[in-house]
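Table S7 (text form). Paired inputs.
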Amino acid sequence: MIHIQEAKFPWAVVHMDLITALTPSGDRSYNACLVIVDRYRKTPILLPCHKDETAMDIALLLWNSVLSHTELFKNIISGRDSTFKSALWTNIHRCFRTNS
């Protein structure tokens, strides 16, 4: 069994998953939902998106919806592959350098 890091403060550790194959809806025909759960508060955030979003698209979505109001996550737990997670972290850091 893998030990999951315990969060010591809000937004330190988050679970992130993409729910796909949804019926297109909204003015932008969203067909997926990015689910982010703060492990400290157990607070979910549901963000409409598209199933083919890139790491940069997800990073911008996170920046505009969560990260512009919180501190940088310490750990992201996700079922995505390590290449995607690495690209996501790179793009999140780009957002912080550009917008902070």
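Next pair, protein 2 of 2.
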Amino acid sequence: MPGMKAQFLAGGGVADVNFLKLAGPAAEGAMAWENGPSLQSLPGGNGFANHYKARFGGSMA
């Protein structure tokens, strides 16, 4: 993904406070996500996507 500088990526169960407790300082810079509604269905979603593309030169998907 353009602009991303994460050293560790994960989804689902990692987006949890227990991950932060167990990983401690090693969690610095980690990125996790949860599924949600499509960006286009959110107010301002298309504007955000356009700004992201202009800033980083590519889409988020």
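The mean pLDDT is 83.
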